[in-house]
Amino acid sequence: MDTSDLQNVIATVNSLVAATNVSINDLSGTPVGMSNVTDLTANTSTVFSYARGLADVNMGPITPLIVFIFTAFVIFLFVRLLLMLLPLLGAMSGIIRKLVELILEFIPG
Asked: What integer pLDDT is reported at residue 59 of this predicted model?
C-alpha cells in the first residue's frame, strides 16, 4: 500500500496550519496579543490567591451572608459556563457520531 500521497497531503496541511496566524479576540472582537494572554494568566493566579486569602478572614455576624454571596456567584458562573458548553458538547457528539457512521459505511460486513 503506497501512502506517499497521503503523507504529502498531511505535510501540506501541516505547513498550512503552521503558516496560519491564530488570532485571539476579546469579547468586543478586538485582537488580543499573546503578551495580554500571559498577563491574564498572571492575573488569574492573583485572583485565586486573593480568594484563598479571604478564606481565613472573619467578618463577624455577616460571615454567612458573605459566604452565601460567594457561593451564589460561583453557582451563577458555573450555570453560565454550562449553558455555553452544553450546546458545544452536543454539537461535538453529533459530529463524532456522524464520523463514526461514515467510517462504518466503508467497512464491509
From this structure: 77
Dihedral angle over CA of 7, 12, 16, 18, nearest 10: 50
* Contacts (Cβ under 8 Å, ≥6 apart) of 21: none
Give Cβ neighbours of residue 13 (< 8 Å, ≥ 6 apart): none
Does the CA dihedral 27-28-32-36 come out positive or negative?
negative
Statement: the pTM of the whole predicted model exceeds 0.85: no
- pLDDT tens string 19-63: 766 666 666 767 766 665 566 666 777 767 766 776 677 778 888
The amino acid occupying position 89 is L
Domain range annotation of the chain:
25-57, 61-109
